[in-house]
Amino acid sequence: MDWNDLRFVLAVARQRTLAAAGQSLGVDPTTVGRRIISLETALGARLYDRTGDGYLPTAAGHAAVARAEKMEQIALSLADEIEGIDGRVAGPVQITALDALFDAIVIPHVGALLGGYPELELTFSSAVATASLERREADVAIRTARPQEPYAVARHLGRAAMAAYVAVDRDFGPMPPLVGLPRSDDNSFSRALEALFPGSRVVVRANAERHMLSLVRAGAGVGLIDCFVGDRDPALRRVWDEPVSRYDLWAAVHVDMHKLPRVRVVMDFLSGIFAEERDRLEGMQASV
Hints:
Blueprint: H1 5-15, H2 18-25, H3 29-43, E1 48-51, E2 54-57, H4 59-85, E3 91-96, H5 99-106, H6 110-116, E4 120-125, E5 140-143, E6 152-167, E7 178-180, H7 187-196, E8 202-205, H8 209-217, E9 222-226, H9 227-230, E10 236-238, E11 245-254, H10 261-276, H11 278-281
Parallel strand pairs: 3-4, 3-5, 7-8, 7-9
Antiparallel strand pairs: 1-2, 5-11, 6-9, 6-10, 6-11
Helix pairs in contact: 1-2, 1-3, 1-4, 2-3
């Protein structure tokens, strides 16, 4: 058998379709299908059931996927170990976080970081779903809860506050229309918002804070916005002076990567700017 075929087994297990697996590997779907068939022939076993919901692993497929994951981790750990021997601060670092944190807090300081370490290559990726450190979907993940994975090394960055905001030219009274997240993303968010305004309901939803911000600014309703965003927007005002919720911020890396020079530099950079921006994050700065 060709050991390289296990990469294709792993990609299909994660993506569920040949097209998506091919995209993740940078090859066409036909190549993925051919490599899967080749491995099934070599092993004398069917690895996937082709269903209407995509490719689902058989019992043999689950065994192959488990071995492929182990091989992936060995390869990644070896690459990290060898790279750690080289003390240069160079190479790619992918950071994941909510879009608002990137736009308002992190990105304004990036020029200084790259000025000091010009061989770094940073990638910023925003998504509601939590990126997997084990599969290297992120090198550094900024999260709103302390990571529980046994392979994660975490650093507390600080706390952030949220407040209820409305457009400066709007006064909806005690039961305003509300701006929330999609039902599929976080029902608890909308429930918390509705609890703040008894009798009100969510009338419009968005899956990113920048969209929620635009909706509130446009007068669609009241929304919970991060203070470090809302306080700097002249088109918004707080409904109440005090924030209505707070949450912690953590930076997490895989244990095999946290000693790499490029990752250490990025972690120190994040710690420094989050400390510098503490008042904004906690909603203690006056609006401008």
